[in-house]
Design a protein that fits this description.
heterodimer; A: mainly alpha; B: mainly alpha; about 70% helix; globular
Chain lengths: ~210, ~300
């Protein structure tokens, strides 16, 4: 209970840090830390009841979210030679306030939902909703493609938190499939970032609409 | 109310000027210097009280009232603050609102006195002080409300007992968030380094120091003493949360005073290893502290 809560609080804090930070390198590290923390979640959320299933899930999550994604994204920002998000649609202090409001909305939402009994922590569902909201907000409020990929990862982390905490008996194959999907998505996005950059000399996605002609 | 309730107040009155001394010694240790004596603030206060005050002809009674009302409000706030397991001199439900309000009154009069001088320099400091405190005060209130919610108590005197004892295990993450936010608030409210540099007298960097430039003699002594008391009060908030409550009053008071000195050392270490933030970054830091306590409050609701 204590460690589960600690991990969930860490997820909330990392989301807020992402909302309030402009440095892409630091943001990638924060998402990696969030991935590693979430990797430990399946083991801690079902604590005395251990199985190979949870062990494999934890190992796979930590390997992909904590090592492979950061490596791919760092390579992407190195090749595109960028270090900062510039002029997001919503500023950083405003993003933080929006984040706090989104957390409040997530908690309110969960009082209205039929949340199953006997969860590892009462924070599981609200925090997973908050991650989804924060991820969506990052995607719509940032211009850099890398920030949007990070938003996508946070969104996926929210769905993962929900899945691990609430749906105890998800087949291993489904979870592995989801992980693989995300991996392919990030891989493709990494390549796309490189190509956008080579075409336009920057990776601000607001200029992509000129392509349609 | 019994006589032991005077002890926290007397300790605050007597020992609060020690905290800046400890901070300065810690900073000197990190810089490889010997540093000023631990009791330097006491010497300064004594020296200033011997002197007369000079008042500009352009100032009104507001300028003279500022330091006095500031000290009076801070002293009243000190009466509300318990230490160890000894309750405060004055305790009633929701007295933490009065605590935050009194600190606000003290700040208001210092700011008004600074504006009364008519100096553009002091007006700039007053503007910064008010801007930053507008961000810091809601965070302080929400932090105190979170503690009240955790302890299910509404008075500062009864709030810390339940919080520091049994709550750390189940509610650990909430309390850790509140402690971190309180540390940021302590640094911001007391004009310490990531927000303000208490040593510089450069106009670009100052917030608190610039507002009291025109005070001299006993007035400056009052200002110095009330800022030392304010540091003591914020440190007491943190110590009350972190230190476990013990049944023995003497032991818990001794532990609490030790905890205060440790907080002062931590502030000294932070000042030694960190640079001052740019002014445009400070609001982000304070909004961040506000977000932390908002998260803690929401988590404590479930």
């Amino acid at each position: 209970m204590f460690f589960t809560n600690l991990i969930l609080a860490l997820v909330v804090l990392t989301n807020l840090k992402l909302l309030g930070s402009s440095r892409l390198g630091a943001s990638i590290r924060v998402v990696a830390a969030q991935g590693v923390a979430l990797g430990l979640l399946p083991i801690l959320a079902h604590w005395p009841e251990l199985s190979v299933h949870f062990g494999l899930l934890a190992a796979g999550t930590i390997a992909i979210k904590g090592v492979v994604f950061p490596w791919l994204l760092f390579r992407a920002i190195r090749e595109a030679e960028i270090a900062r998000e510039v002029e997001p649609y919503v500023g950083y202090a405003a993003s933080l306030v929006t984040g706090a409001a989104a957390l409040g909305a997530a908690f309110w939402l969960c009082t209205r939902l039929p949340v199953p009994e006997g969860l590892a922590s009462p924070w599981l569902v609200p925090v997973s909703f908050f991650s989804i909201f924060a991820g969506l907000f990052l995607i719509v409020s940032r211009k850099r493609a890398v920030s949007q990929v990070l938003g996508f990862l946070v969104l996926e982390n929210g769905i993962y938190t929900f899945g691990v905490g609430v749906a105890v008996r998800t087949p291993f194959l489904v979870e592995a499939g989801v992980l693989l999907d995300v991996f392919v998505a990030v891989f493709v996005m990494g390549i796309t970032i490189f190509h956008i950059n080579r075409e336009f000399d920057h990776i601000n996605t607001d200029r992509l609409s000129t392509l349609k002609d | 109310m019994n006589l032991t309730s005077f002890i926290p107040l007397l300790l605050a009155l007597g020992l609060s000027p020690l905290l800046p001394g400890v901070i300065n010694r810690t900073k000197a240790f990190f810089a490889g210097r010997r540093g000023p004596p631990l009791l330097q603030t006491y010497f300064d206060l004594w020296k200033l009280l011997q002197k007369g005050a000079v008042y500009s002809r352009t100032t009104t009674w507001l300028f003279r009232a500022g330091p006095i009302i500031g000290l009076a409000a801070t002293l009243t706030a000190a009466m509300l603050m318990p230490l160890g397991n000894v309750p405060a001199l004055i305790a009633f439900p929701a007295d933490f609102l009065l605590f935050a309000g009194l600190l606000g009154v003290a700040r208001f009069f210092i700011v008004v006195a600074a504006l009364d001088t008519g100096s553009s320099f002091e007006g700039m400091g007053a503007s910064r002080e008010v801007f930053f405190s507008a961000l810091a005060e809601p965070a302080l209130l929400v932090a105190l409300a979170t503690l009240a919610r955790q302890a299910d108590m509404l008075s500062l005197s009864t709030l810390f007992g339940p919080v520091s004892g049994a709550h750390w295990l189940p509610a650990g993450p909430v309390l850790i968030l509140v402690v971190i936010a309180l540390m940021i608030l302590l640094l911001a409210e007391n004009a310490r380094i990531p927000v303000d540099d208490p040593n510089t007298h450069l106009e670009l960097t100052m917030i608190h120091e610039v507002m009291v430039l025109d005070h001299g003699g006993p007035d400056l002594a009052f200002v110095l003493y009330s800022s030392a008391l304010k540091l003591w009060l914020f440190a007491a908030l943190m110590v009350g949360m972190i230190l476990p409550a013990t049944g023995n009053s003497g032991l818990s008071l001794l532990l609490a005073v030790g905890g205060m000195l440790i907080v002062a050392v931590v502030v000294g270490v932070i000042e030694s290893v960190m640079a001052r933030l740019r002014l445009v970054i400070v609001p982000q830091l304070l909004v961040g502290a506000g977000a932390l306590v908002a998260v803690a409050f929401l988590l404590s609701l479930v």
